[in-house]
Amino acid sequence: TTFLLGEEIEVSTFQEERERERHRAKRSDSDRERRKRGNGRRKRASRAEEGKGESQARHDRREKGRRKRTRQDNEEVEVRPESLSSEELEKLKEAVDERKKLIQVLRGKPWPMKKKCVTLWILKKESQEFVEKYEGALGKGKGRKLYAYKVMMTKKWMKFQRDFENFKTACIPWEMKIKEIESHFGSSVASYFIFLRWMYGINMILFCLTFGLVMVPEALMGRPYGTIPRKTVPRAEATSAMDFAVLWDFGGYAQYSVLFYGYYNNQRAIGWLKFRMPLSYFLVGVGTVAYSYMVVIRTMARNANESGVGDDNSFNFNWKMFTSWDYLIGNPETADNKFASITTSFKEAILEEQESRKDDNIHLTRFLRVLANFLVLCCLAGSGYLIYFVVRRSQKFALDGLENHSWWERNEVNMVMSLLGMFCPMLFDVISALENYHPRVALQWQLGRIFALFLGNLYTFIIALMDEINLKREEEKIIKFNITTWEASLYNGTVSENSTAPPVTIQPADVPRGPCWETMVGQEFVRLIISDTMTTYITLLIGDFLRAVLVRFLNYCWCWDLEAGFPSYSEFDVSGNVLGLIFNQGMICTFSQMGAFYAPCLPALNILRLHVSMYLQCWAVMCCNVPQERVFKASGSNNFYMAMLLVILFLSTLPAIYTIVTIPPSFDCGPFSGKQHMFDVIQETLELDFPAWFGKVFSYASNPGLVLPFILLMVLAIYYLQSTSKSYKEANVELKKKLQTVTQISFSPLALM
Amino acid sequence: MKLLHGRYRELAPHLVPLDYTNNPDIRVPPTLIVTMPELKENPFRDRIVETFSEDGHGNLSFNDFVDMFSALCETSPRELKTIYAFKIYDFNRDNFICKEDLKKTLNKLTKGELSPEEVLLVCDKSMEEADLDGDSKLSFSDFENMVSKAPDFLSNFHVRI
């Protein structure tokens, strides 16, 4: 960019600079030079005014009254450059500053170019005269060069900063896609994609943790495949281990790999690094939970902060009208997007305004809302009972042996769950028409209700899982017994000395294996995620894409207008998608203390899934969906989604902690095999790896006498912080009100004028 | 400076001479100026060109051209930009932004996508928000007060050339 006025002035000063250099004289330091120059110019300017008496100059003088003062000073002071005292230097400095201010004011004047040029020409002429007068006193113009260099560096720095900002924005993944979606569909749909991207970021971190600290060490430094029984496919399954069907089901080679819990050896320290594998496994598991909680809470806190600050919409409509168009846009597509986004933003604001103006019969509304909630509760109770009934039946079937029943009876639970998941949200949607809420609030209610519905889903899943775990543990006892008999039979043929029986070499594939309930749990989770993803994609393709294709092409030969009436294009189902995302994350994250804990491959799978989802859904939204009729602004903070995520995380931590604390690990698979509890690994590490006093300190710290007062202290701290934050918020609101009244007061005298 | 002259010249090479030392009085018509890539997509391009022209019809001399870009550039002071923004949005040039001006601004911004009731609602709300002296039109001081609090006025109201 060229700022012409500034450059003109600098051009003129450069010329002076050159002249001065030609007349080398006594040196002084650069500051004094500048001051002298400035003052000289001012004096010359004022004298020139007197001499010329031009209307222009007089106009200037009228506006800057300070000039008069300087002129009087000038007449008194005999300027001899060598003998300038310090207070004269001060005056010079002042004069330079005034000069600078004059230039600034000149820049700010909406005069046409001609006028400004004339004024500048006058100033320039005067400075030339001054230079001729004082050339003897002025030294080398080195300071000026430095100043010019500094100015150029500042400009370059500004440009660099701007480019860097652009680069940073370009680096944010999918930013352009989301901006495009936002401009066409509004901020609520875009908020889903922003949420998706945020989830992706979290999963990336979790993936790095599990991959780097769990999977890679075991793969590189642990004992390779086939050396010990737990790492080998059993002889019985070996023939089918490579089949695609088996692999897709995560059996066969997939099962006996770093992807699942069962592969890991319980050796305390592996490799030349003496990497503590079981400890790392446990800590990574705990770490993923802690990280998820921390990130969610931190985001909630940040959102809460921001929503308080940027809340000034005193001139909302005006700002939208006068300051929303970006004058830098030169690209027609960007311009289209901008027009769309401005229109959408106006529609959002209009909707807010209309909603706030609505004043219906409050009693009727309340009655209808209570009725709607009652209906929804009935629905939920009905579905809850149905699920319970079906689960009971399936447990009965399982006891009878699954082969005796038809396909429907075997898959009854899954089918009922899917059907409920499809029809109940639609029912809730219809019921919510009774309630007449603001669309954003309606969305939150809808999300809450579907959430309650899915809790039933969770319940069945957990019950089924627990049953299977118990089954496997029963099996384990039997197998343990069998193994001892089998080992005894091995030694039957050899010399049975008490201590030095030669080791019998057996192929690891032939050793009878205990059932590994942890791997089974991991497999269940992975299968669930996969089937869920597949279902989402297929419904997306069929529900949205196929429907759009049908509507578009059949419209040409159909009796009524397919696009306007039924079925028309589908709208983007924000609530369904958000919930799907949250549930999956909950299942990964902490449900996955059961999930990622028992199947370290889960974060990797999730990343893949989110990645594909992002592209697929972005494409589907732009291609097959239409913007909603009533476009509303998402509550900019997304705290609602965060809150739901937090609830799910919490609900899922409970069963996870239960399994870790109560159920003993399998005796022959996984990093904790052989221990009584999984967390014994911590105890072991403390005893063996840390110095003795550490263990003592820990045992003191875990004394209930110390822990309870600490908890009490924390509760008190929370209460204190909560009350101070509330008082700050109130003070904030008071200040805002004061500011508004002050602005209004300051403008009412203007009105009187 | 040379850069600007080059850009000015390429709009109408047959009209604009290479040599400007004797200040020839050449004006480029607005139809050519709005074809500049910096202004092409701007919904207010006609108004911008009219505001900076001396005759009010959009014919810009070189001085006006330079004026326009220097007022809209990044380092131009806020007050200057506010003054010119007010002039641009004042369609009927009566030194007040009245409801008609608001309607025209809105229609240019949304390309006519909003229904008439919505347009009316927005204009009413805007007038209500910013009009402090109650004369149902926005004077310069109302406009200035409103814009001074706007967070992205400076960053959006600038053209880079």
Automatic annotation (TrEMBL), chain A:
It is a multi-pass membrane protein. One of its GO terms (biological process) is detection of mechanical stimulus involved in sensory perception of sound. It is found in: Membrane. It comes from Cyclopterus lumpus (Lumpsucker). Residues 34-45 have a biased composition (Basic residues). One of its GO terms (cellular component) is plasma membrane. Signal peptide: none annotated. Belongs to the TMC family. Keywords: Membrane, Transmembrane, Transmembrane helix. InterPro entries: TMC, TMC_dom. Residues 15-33, 46-63, 71-81 have a biased composition (Basic and acidic residues). Residues 1-83 are annotated as: Disordered. The chain crosses the membrane at residues 198-221, 278-297, 370-391, 412-434, 446-466, 640-661, 697-721. One of its GO terms (molecular function) is mechanosensitive monoatomic ion channel activity. Residues 516-635 form the TMC domain. This is Transmembrane channel-like protein.
TrEMBL record, chain B:
InterPro entries: CIBP, EF-hand-dom_pair, EF_Hand_1_Ca_BS, EF_hand_dom. GO terms for biological process: calcium ion homeostasis. Residues 77-112, 118-153 form the EF-hand domain. The keyword GTP-binding does not apply. Pfam families: EF-hand_7. CDD domains: EFh. One of its GO terms (molecular function) is magnesium ion binding. It is found in: Cell membrane, Sarcolemma; Cell projection, Cilium, Photoreceptor outer segment; Cell projection, Stereocilium; Cytoplasm. One of its GO terms (cellular component) is photoreceptor outer segment. Keywords: Calcium, Cell membrane, Cell projection, Cytoplasm, Magnesium, Membrane, Metal-binding, Repeat. Gene3D superfamilies: EF-hand (1.10.238.10). This is Calcium and integrin-binding family member 2.
